[in-house]
Amino acid sequence: MLDLKASPLVQASFRLARAFGWTPQQVQSLTMAQISLYLELLDQEVQERDGV
Question: What is the pTM of this model?
Answer without folding.
Answer: 0.77
